[in-house]
Design the sequence.
């Protein structure tokens, strides 16, 4: 796979289809890949990597890259193409300046999961059959790839590439891996249980803004939480209220635009399952207003910017809301 | 807020200018009583209500927040309350998901002619929130008065 | 040196938490280590280190400074600093222990920061030697010996026992009250240190070369074209800053509760687009400048102003937590290439 | 520094009885920013207003808070008063301490406390008020009427009579619309042509009216008072100004096999044609789909016979751009297609006809010259069955329409009556669900059909119509006598539901006018603004807004005209200054606001901004047209970055009120 991508990248640069390539760059270790812009075939040869650790969603970088003049190629995994298309829909990316190479993907791995599985001091990981073998400072360690997958990939929503100029590998299908199971579990709890669950999770938040800054839907010129004039600015959660506030409003602002790419949870240094907030909105929207997948197409209206005369009344929350315990 | 030992909820009512605010005026004109806990903020349309305002109210010590707008189909701006309806439905569902008492937030459609409904709604809402007791799950301790 | 069978460790914690707060690394709901107030039943984490560094205990993310009340046209001041209580900080690793020296240089230099000072004076630091360093560790690069951690008290732990060595007056005072400790030789500890040092010899980052990161190369480093590619994918989040044991920048904000204005300080990050924003605008307009600032500060400005002491302790937190896996090790290597 | 004045009104005893006005003004006087506070018996009285005005001058007030009755009562009064004293009217806020305080509370302590809090909220808000000035936009004194049916004609005539130029755009070669195809009109039975054609001529001759026949609206830009419309004048290959309408070409044209849409295909016409004798403009049109000259380049008979030399095979579509102040939509209706109703054998037998086709068969100018003959064998039908509600009040969506088409009951009564009158030997059956006859003389009319003309009205639906050796076997049920009926009919007439013209939907999009699920235009308010579209400057006339008969259509046409005239009379439109306002520095250009704007007030522009390090960058940012924005605020919440705010009800102002109330 990686070789194919490299060759493609080099070819695109050589035949001047593009001036730059956005991809993943090798790091200090086998797992710490950094999104990077490559300018020459030599750079590609030297540092371009595509592996189970190429989790980073590159679509958001194209907001800036597509405006830098010249044409840029980007390698997008299925879930990344949804984010990309949603950004196109919001006029954030100049399509004509981007050459999208769609790449199929069978799930990316979470190094922290691998370490948590007892591989501390891990220095290399190789795939053996459907399993992984980790070499560590303290000897070898085997584990199944399933246990190493990022949470989002374990319940992958789609292998379909919704937009691309060129496709490497097979076009895939939408998946139904039951990504709402966790949400349903929470819905079944009592309000008290849910409250203490979320307090526990959100109280770990250090307001580093990684979730927001990595989020393709959070591409505001200036976030209201940074803007002194918004009346909502706060730099640190000075009170538990502000922890709740930040995450409620963030989820609301991306509601019906969030493609569920899962980057927020992937990057959270405190392992807060932020995607469960976004997924709650997605699930509600599907149930109340009909199935909707942000980024799946260019023309449908996001449900929060749309309505039907027969929409449910807010009181529906009292009946259908949680507390089904 | 505690008034001689007994809990008095603070209620913020956002009313759209064209229907519900007029409905509130009408219940006044008809001398229909409802508790003084309710303080009304006039907004042009229910679709003007930003979820930020609701959270802000809870942060600053509100125990309940209610939005009143024209009946669906009667919006002065034709579609405003349809958007408000979706926004509030999703927001309330999210608050419930976070374990915040869902009875603290409500939306009611009150026309300019429904002074009676306005008063009844407020009486009912105040009673419901009083039963719940003070807002603890969405309060900002820095603003707490007790 | 004293020792204590691990079976009795709760006894030790009980004693340490008598009359003061005891913080130990314990696993949180997400299975990561966090300094937590000890109470009956709280287990010591087996993780190498905490996600948030030990600096939190001396320099919390949010801290009240003072309050104002306006009545009519009068303004009154309200003392609102949290009361300074004695506490013990147990299980600090060598890297974090070093970070206190760095923070001290910032906060205790005259005029001393009284909020920080009060916490430092009230806190007793009990360190814990490392036995299983991670691939991301590179404290040795900064002359730190993780098997010989500093602190008021240094500890070592093997399968059976905890070894305890008081280093300072504070440490002695703390030790005095701990009857459950028995005297012990140092053999076990030395043996363990040997084993650990072997691992240290294998660490992938042990040879990070800091040659040339100094005042005389300041401009050359500052003007290096490499900053552009290093910073190009930086998200401008504050993760590295907030998990870093030595980052010490803060902002002072005010919050109007309606009846009172509370002035507090909270961590800030030089990676944020609004960091030190002024009426004239943003002195570091792009992420390149912000990114460069952070690393120039740790690797050049700080040592230049503090007789060679680097602003990094090699704990490796930023290596583990950066969303895009850009970190100080990569910066040192990339810029360092020119030096070899 | 703010200098705010607070004025507490007693409203006689209305407020003072349950609110301690002294205390309220005393306490509010100590609020930060307040430099003057007083109370008075009747603030709205001249003395009260003088009090406010002198305070504004003496204390150099920057904001005024009046604690009184509802702003819906006296906001304008107080704003005017302050404006007279030189204070911007939008620096005035009202605290409603009557309707929402003194009148609903009995306990004075409670009322007083609440009044103080409401006052604080108003003070908190006024601290953040900005002076606002209502913008003005000029009005182009010309109207456009889209659709040249009776609705469009009537509207155009009324506007023209008021002295304003008005253009009619009609997609057909002639104006007149559906009404030209009708025979007689209920309930008076006078002939449609006789009452319509004079109006058509009048329209043609009125110098204020210009008719674009055989033309369609291509694009609409602009907004109320300033629409810019592109009209496509389709090539008719005949020079309008030269053609005399003599009709010679339409007799000589060799292409005879063209189905005649005016008679709904019941007969044929030539490739060059004039729809009917009284067409306006009376000008021939070449049907490019059938003309051999245009298709194969040979023939050219018409140009040979045309003495005026009006034929021009080279003619091209022409695009005309015109400016208008107001637009009236009068796109009318069509009967639905009946192919989905095969149980009535519409597509199997020519003797099963729609009501409109029946109109033509009865019409003296129709294919049969007004003699009722079966299309199949041109014999006189003896037994006729009329079926009501074909596709109306229909629960299956893909088949028919959920609504009542309103006109069918009456025209069917008319048809039945006319049959019996002209041909007393016929038997006429009408199958109905309900007979709906609201309207002046309507029920009398229907009863005459039953009582005087002996039409058999049967409550029940026709289940099936089977053509069988020249007859139409009608199976139906009589719900009242609860029996099955079998009728051998010679003709079956279907009262097809009516639907908006297919051009309505794309037009609505061009106009950003809203439509309901049935593609009828929606009115600004169902009860109070029935002839205006929610989009300012767009008015609705006739069946495009819902099924209507002729008198209703004409009435609405007049109403729409008067609304348009009201608009055109103005030289300038003053806009509500409380409109949305984007902060271009914060705007992402993501179009969220545009998607929720009911008025199409938001557009986007690529603007150049100063980037970091002396760079410049182009960004797509939202622009609000203050003349179109009505200030609902939907966009302000849709905007994730908070770039969109609402003047007069800004985020900060509302939050300040919240804080004051909760504190």
Sequence:
């Amino acid at each position: 796979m990686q070789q194919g991508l490299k060759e493609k990248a080099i070819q695109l640069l050589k035949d001047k289809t593009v001036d730059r390539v956005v991809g993943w760059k090798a790091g200090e270790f086998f797992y710490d890949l950094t999104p990077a812009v490559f300018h020459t075939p030599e750079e590609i040869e030297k540092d371009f990597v595509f592996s189970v650790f190429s989790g980073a969603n590159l679509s958001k970088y194209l907001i800036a890259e597509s405006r830098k003049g010249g044409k840029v190629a980007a390698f997008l995994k299925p879930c990344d193409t949804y984010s990309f298309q949603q950004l196109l829909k919001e006029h954030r990316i100049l399509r004509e300046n981007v050459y999208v190479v769609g790449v199929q993907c069978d799930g990316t791995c979470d190094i922290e999961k691998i370490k948590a599985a007892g591989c501390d001091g891990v220095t290399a990981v190789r795939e053996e059959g459907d399993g992984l073998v980790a070499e560590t400072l303290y000897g070898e360690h085997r584990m199944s790839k399933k246990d190493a997958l990022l949470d989002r990939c374990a319940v992958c929503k789609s292998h379909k590439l919704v937009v691309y100029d060129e496709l490497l590998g097979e076009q895939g299908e939408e998946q139904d891996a039951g990504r709402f199971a966790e949400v349903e579990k929470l819905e079944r709890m009592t309000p008290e249980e849910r409250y203490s669950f979320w307090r526990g999770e959100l109280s770990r938040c250090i307001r580093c803004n990684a979730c927001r800054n990595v989020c393709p839907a959070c591409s505001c010129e200036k976030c209201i939480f940074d803007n002194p004039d918004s009346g909502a600015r706060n730099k640190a959660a000075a009170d538990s209220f502000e922890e709740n506030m930040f995450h409620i409003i963030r989820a609301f602002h991306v509601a019906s635009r969030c493609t569920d790419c899962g980057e927020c949870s992937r990057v959270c240094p405190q392992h807060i399952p932020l995607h469960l907030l976004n997924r709650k909105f997605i699930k509600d929207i599907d149930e109340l207003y009909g199935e909707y997948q942000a980024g799946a197409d260019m023309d449908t209206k996001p449900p929060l910017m749309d309505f039907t005369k027969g929409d449910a009344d807010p009181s529906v929350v009292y009946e259908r809301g949680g507390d089904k315990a | 807020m505690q008034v001689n030992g007994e809990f008095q909820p603070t209620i913020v009512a956002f009313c759209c200018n064209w229907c519900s605010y007029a409905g509130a005026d009408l219940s006044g004109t008809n001398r229909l009583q409802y508790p003084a806990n309710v303080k009304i903020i006039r907004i042009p349309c229910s679709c003007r209500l930003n979820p930020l305002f609701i959270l802000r109210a809870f942060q600053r010590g509100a125990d309940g927040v209610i939005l009143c707008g024209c009946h669906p189909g009667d919006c002065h701006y034709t579609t405003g309350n349809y958007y408000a309806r979706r926004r509030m439905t999703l927001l309330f569902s999210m608050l419930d998901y976070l374990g915040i008492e869902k009875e603290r937030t409500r939306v009611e459609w009150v026309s300019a002619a429904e002074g009676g409904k306005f008063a009844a709604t407020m009486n009912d809402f105040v009673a419901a929130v009083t039963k719940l007791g003070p807002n603890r799950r969405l309060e900002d301790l820095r603003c707490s008065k007790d | 040196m004293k020792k204590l069978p691990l079976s009795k460790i709760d006894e030790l914690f009980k004693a340490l938490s008598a009359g003061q707060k005891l913080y130990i690394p314990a696993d949180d709901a997400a299975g990561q280590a966090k300094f937590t107030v000890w109470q009956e039943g709280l287990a010591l984490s087996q993780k190498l280190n905490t996600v948030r560094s030990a600096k939190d205990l001396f320099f919390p993310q949010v801290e009240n400074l003072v309050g104002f009340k306006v009545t009519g046209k009068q303004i009154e001041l309200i003392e609102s600093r949290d009361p300074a209580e004695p506490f013990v900080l147990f299980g600090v690793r060598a890297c974090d222990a070093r970070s206190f020296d760095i923070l001290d240089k910032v906060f205790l230099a005259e005029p001393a920061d009284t909020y920080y000072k009060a916490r430092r004076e009230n806190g007793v630091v009990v360190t814990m030697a490392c036995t299983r360093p991670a691939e991301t560790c590179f404290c040795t690069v900064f002359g730190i010996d993780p098997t010989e951690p500093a602190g008021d008290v240094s500890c070592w732990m093997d399968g059976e026992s905890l070894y305890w060595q008081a280093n300072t007056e504070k440490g002695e005072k703390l030790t005095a009250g701990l009857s459950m400790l028995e005297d012990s030789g140092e053999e076990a500890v030395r043996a363990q240190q040997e084993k650990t040092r072997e691992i240290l010899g294998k660490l992938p980052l042990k040879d990070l070369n800091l040659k040339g990161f100094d005042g005389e190369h300041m401009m050359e480093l500052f003007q290096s074209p490499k900053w552009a590619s290093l910073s190009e994918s930086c998200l401008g989040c504050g993760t590295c800053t907030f998990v870093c044991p030595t980052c010490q920048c803060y902002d002072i904000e005010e919050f109007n509760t309606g009846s009172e204005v509370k002035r507090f300080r909270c961590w800030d990050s030089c990676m944020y687009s609004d960091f030190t924003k002024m009426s004239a605008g943003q002195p570091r307009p792009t992420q390149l400048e912000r990114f460069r600032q952070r690393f120039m500060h740790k690797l050049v400005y700080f040592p230049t102003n503090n007789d060679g002491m680097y602003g990094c302790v090699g704990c490796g937190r930023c290596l583990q937590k950066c969303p895009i896996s850009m970190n100080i090790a990569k910066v040192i290597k990339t810029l360092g290439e020119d030096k070899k | 520094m703010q200098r705010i004045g607070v004025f507490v009104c007693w409203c006689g005893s209305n407020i003072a009885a349950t609110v301690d006005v002294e205390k309220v003004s005393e306490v509010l006087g100590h609020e930060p920013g307040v430099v003057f506070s007083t109370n008075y018996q009747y603030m709205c009285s001249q003395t009260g207003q003088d009090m406010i005005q002198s305070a504004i001058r003496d204390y150099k007030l920057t904001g005024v808070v009046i604690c009184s009755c509802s702003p819906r009562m006296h906001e304008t009064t107080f704003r005017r008063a302050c404006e007279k004293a030189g204070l911007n009217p939008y620096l005035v806020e009202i605290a409603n301490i009557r309707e929402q305080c003194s009148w609903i509370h009995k306990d004075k302590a409670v009322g007083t406390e609440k009044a103080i809090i409401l006052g604080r909220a108003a003070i908190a808000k006024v601290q953040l008020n900005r002076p606002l000035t209502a913008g003005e936009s000029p009005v182009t004194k010309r109207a456009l009427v889209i659709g040249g049916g009776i609705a469009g004609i009537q509207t155009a005539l009324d506007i023209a009579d008021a002295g304003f130029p008005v253009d009619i755009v009609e997609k057909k070669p002639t104006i007149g619309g559906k009404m030209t195809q009708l025979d007689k009109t209920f309930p008076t039975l006078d002939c449609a042509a006789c009452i319509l054609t004079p109006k058509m001529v009048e329209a043609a001759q009125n110098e204020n009216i210009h008719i674009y026949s055989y033309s369609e609206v291509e694009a609409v830009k602009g907004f109320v008072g300033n629409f810019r419309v592109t009209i496509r004048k389709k090539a008719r290959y005949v020079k309008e100004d030269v053609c005399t309408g003599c009709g010679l070409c339409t007799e000589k044209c060799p292409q005879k096999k063209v189905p005649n849409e005016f008679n709904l295909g019941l007969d044929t016409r030539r490739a060059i044609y004039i729809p009917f004798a009284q067409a306006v403009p009376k000008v021939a049109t070449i049907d490019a789909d059938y003309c051999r000259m245009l298709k194969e380049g040979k023939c050219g008979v018409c140009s040979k016979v045309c003495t005026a030399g009006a034929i021009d095979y080279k003619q091209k579509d022409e695009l005309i751009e015109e400016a208008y102040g107001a637009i009236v939509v009068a796109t009318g209706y069509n009967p639905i297609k009946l192919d989905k109703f095969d149980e009535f054998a519409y597509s199997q037998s020519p003797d099963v006809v729609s009501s409109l086709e029946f109109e033509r068969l009865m019409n003296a100018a129709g294919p049969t010259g007004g003699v009722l003959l079966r299309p199949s064998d041109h014999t006189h039908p003896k037994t006729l069955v009329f079926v009501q509600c074909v596709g109306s009040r229909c629960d299956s969506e893909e088949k028919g329409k959920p609504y009542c088409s309103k006109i069918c009951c009456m025209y069917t009564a008319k048809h039945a009556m006319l049959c019996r009158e002209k041909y007393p030997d016929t038997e006429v059956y009408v199958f109905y669900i309900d007979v709906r006859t609201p309207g002046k003389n309507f029920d009398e009319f229907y009863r005459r059909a039953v009582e005087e003309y002996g039409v058999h009205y049967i409550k029940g639906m026709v289940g099936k119509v089977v053509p069988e050796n020249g007859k139409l076997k009608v199976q139906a049920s009589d719900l009242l006598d609860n029996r099955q009926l079998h009728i051998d009919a010679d003709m079956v007439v279907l009262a097809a539901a009516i639907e908006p013209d297919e051009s309505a939907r794309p037009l609505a999009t061009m106009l950003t006018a809203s439509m309901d699920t049935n593609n009828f235009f929606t009115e600004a308010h169902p009860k109070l603004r029935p002839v205006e579209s929610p989009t300012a400057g767009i008015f609705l006339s006739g069946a495009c807004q819902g099924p209507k008969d002729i008198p209703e259509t004409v009435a609405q046409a007049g109403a729409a005209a008067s609304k348009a005239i009201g608009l055109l009379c103005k030289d300038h439109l003053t806009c509500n200054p409380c409109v949305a306002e984007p902060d271009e520095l914060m705007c992402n250009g993501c179009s969220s606001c545009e998607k929720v704007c009911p008025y199409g007030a938001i557009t986007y522009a690529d603007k150049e901004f100063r980037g970091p390090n002396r760079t410049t960058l182009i960004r797509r940012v939202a622009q609000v047209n203050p003349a179109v924005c009505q200030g609902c605020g939907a966009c302000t919440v849709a905007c994730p970055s908070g770039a969109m705010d609402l003047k007069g009800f800004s985020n900060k102002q509302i939050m300040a009120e919240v804080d004051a109330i909760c504190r």
The interface with chain A takes residues 517, 585-592, 595-596, 604, 617-620, 638, 640-643, 651-652, 655 of chain D (CB under 8 Å).
